[in-house]
Specification:
The chain is of the alpha/beta class and 368 residues long. The chain has 2 domains: 217 residues, Alpha-Beta Barrel (TIM Barrel); 124 residues, Lyase, Ornithine Decarboxylase, Chain A, domain 1 (Beta Barrel). Helices cover 29% and strands 21% of the residues. It contains 12 helices and 18 strands. The strands form 3 sheets. Strands 1, 10, 13, 14, 15, 16, 17 and 18 form an 8-stranded mixed sheet that branches. It is elongated, with a radius of gyration of 24 Å. The two termini are 23 Å apart. 45% of the residues are buried. The mean pLDDT is 97. The structure holds pyridoxal-5'-phosphate. Pyridoxal-5'-phosphate binds next to α9.
Length: 368
């Protein structure tokens, strides 16, 4: 018998969520964002499942893209942070990697590299997030230089990224959309009428909540894994199905008397005579160490609160109110019945981080 700690990855939920993205924006193509090991789910496995349906993949850097090619993934792969050295330009052109372009240094590398094939470039403009992208007034000049280069495919995509599309009432998203529309219109009037200017704005929040941000290309990430990034419950968000179920088992049970303390630092004290179950999962398996006493887990379908500090390989939970708990019973840390976003809140973080921190040690098992 192996240690029972595992992350089940539901193939059908992943495909379902992709379908939701497609149905919400039926006229858009999608770049499925699978950086950081597909937000902890396993990039190669996720890419293999999505490859038949998606138009392209998005990763942070060329190392992540190469890992996918080596594993036999053939669809285009967009490098979201673009190039980190000039050598990467020729490799990308050869391997059919697409690149985001953020700055003058990257432009110079692209224009002066020796490419065997033209490279597909996404020119990123900073419309208000102030993290990446050329300034609005640089767009026309950058675009014209790219268009004139034999190293660059003529279908250059103008793109931007939202700062706060997850917040329904934040006016900055409208401001970003308006500016992006103006820049696109100005660019189009400055180019020959037959020049195609494809565009891309929406991440998951944009797809779920900002239909006016849907463009030729959308870039769904977090929603593919079945959780909503939005700051409130919405019908669209409710359509998503969590892909990862993180689970383990009870490996020890004990009675503690009222007043006795549990775990490292003795930071949980029994307020009554209690039954404590020890579960084979800890921060070494991706369960957040910072999770507070009271963080929910599920034992036999019933909530059991965390009782005591998270150890590297174990947690302790209060099962006093759950009938007939035995060693070997299944414990769910997050999944369809216990959203990772809820657990993350108890650990002062967000679902994105909790999922992405899943270490290699935790076995991913593809189901259904
Ligand atoms: C440029 C870009 N597009 C799309 C995404 C996907 O965002 P989300 O996971 O919120 O859908 C990211 C993620 O950080 C990103 O950096």
């Amino acid at each position: 018998m192996a240690r029972p700690t595992k992350a089940l990855i539901s193939k059908s939920a992943l495909l379902h969520n992709y379908n939701v993205a497609q149905q919400l924006a039926p006229n858009s193509n999608n770049v499925a964002i699978i950086k950081a090991n597909a937000y902890g789910h396993g990039a190669v496995a996720v890419a293999q499942i999505l490859e038949p349906v998606v138009q392209a993949f998005g990763v942070a850097c060329i190392e992540e893209a190469l890992e996918l090619r080596v594993a036999g993934i053939n669809k285009p792969i967009l490098l979201l942070e673009g190039f980190f050295s000039k050598e990467e330009v020729a490799i990308a052109a050869k391997m059919n990697f697409w690149t985001m372009l953020d700055n003058q240094r990257q432009l110079d590398w692209i224009l002066t590299a020796q490419c065997s094939k033209p490279l597909k470039v996404w020119l990123k403009v900073d419309t208000g997030m102030h993290r990446l992208g050329v300034q609005p007034e640089q767009v026309n000049d950058f675009y014209q230089q790219l268009l004139a280069s034999d190293n660059v495919d003529n279908d250059i995509i103008l793109t931007t990224h939202f700062a706060s599309a997850d917040e329904g009432n934040n006016p900055s998203t409208e401001t970003q959309i308006t500016l992006f529309n103006q820049l696109t219109a100005t660019l189009r009037t400055s180019l020959a009428s037959d020049t195609l200017v494809s565009t891309s704005m929406a991440n998951s929040a944009g797809i779920l909540d900002w239909p006016k941000a849907h463009r030729d290309w959308n870039r769904p990430g977090f929603m593919l894994y079945g959780n909503s990034p939005l700051d409130r419950v919405t019908d669209n968000g409710l359509q998503l199905k969590p892909v990862m179920t993180l689970k383990s088992e009870v490996i020890s049970l004990r009675e503690v008397k009222s007043g006795q303390k549990v775990g490292y630092g003795s930071n949980w004290t029994a307020a009554r005579d209690s039954q404590i179950a020890t579960v084979a999962i800890g921060y070494g398996d991706g369960y957040p160490r910072i999770a507070k006493n009271g963080t929910p887990t599920l034992v036999n379908g019933v909530i059991a609160p965390l009782a005591g500090r998270v150890s590297m390989d174990m947690i302790t939970i209060d099962v006093t109110d759950i009938a007939d708990v035995s060693i070997g019973d299944e414990v769910i840390l997050w999944g369809a019945e216990l959203p990772v976003n809820d657990v993350a809140l108890h650990a002062s973080t967000i679902g994105y981080e909790a999922l992405t921190r899943m270490p290699l040690r935790t076995k991913r098992i593809i189901v259904d």
